[in-house]
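Protocol step 4 of 6: structure prediction from sequence.
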Amino acid sequence: MATTGIIAVALFFIASLPCAVAAETASSTPIAPLGPPGAPASVFPKPVRPVADIVADQWSTEEARDRAGEAAEVMRTLGVHPGMSVADVGAGRGYYTVRVAKKVGAGGRVIAEDVVPDYLEGLRQRLQREHLDNVSLDLGEPHDPRLPPRSVDLVLLVHMYHEVEQPYGFLYNLLPALRPGARVAVIDLDQATGIHGTPRRELLCEFRALGFRNTQWRWLRIKKEYLAVFAPPARRITPEEIKPCTQ
C-alpha cells in the first residue's frame, strides 16, 4: 500500500507539471501592442505647449480617490454598464481598470494601455490577485495607443493627457479603435501642462483640431479637476489638414 501511494503521488506530480509550466509561461508572456501601428509621429505638427514628464503610475492614493467617490461618480456620469468595452489609456497602477472591469462584468471588456512596460507588468500581477479575467493589457507608444480597430465604446484618459508628447498623432491614431457612438473622456486638472494639468482652452483646441466635438463638461472637485467628454469626428481628416493650436 505504501509503495502504491508513493507511485500515485509521483504520477500526480508529473501530470501537474504541464499545467504549472503553462501557467508560468502565460504569466511571463511579454506584454505587446494589441493593435496595428498607426501613422508615425513625424507626420504631425508639433505642439507648442510644454509636455509633463511621466513621474508615477498614479496621481493620488486610491483610498483618497474612493473617499471622494471619484470612480463611482465618473462611471455613473459616463453611463458605464455591463457589456461595455472600455479602454483605460495610461492605466498606470489600474485604479480605473479594476473598477471598470467589475462594472462591465464578464460580458464586457477593459483594455488597459500604457507606454511603460513595468506599469503594465505590475497591473498584470494585480489583476491576477484580484481574479479579473476580462482585462487585456496593451503596450502603446507615446503617439499611438495601439488599440485594436473598432474595439471600444469608451476611452478613459485620466490624468495623463498632459504627458502626451504628440497629442495630434495620439488622437489621430486613437480614432480607428472607436466603435460607432463611442466617446472619449478626459479627466485632468485645469492648470498648465508643465505642472501636470491641461488648461481647458488647450484641451478643447487640440481635440477640435482633429474634429472632435465636446459634448459634456463638468467639474469633479473644487472646480479644478474636470471631466470632459468628446464625440469623434464624422470624417477622419489627414495629418496635413491638422491646424495646430497656438498659445
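Step 5 (inspection) to follow. The two ends are 84 Å apart (CA to CA).
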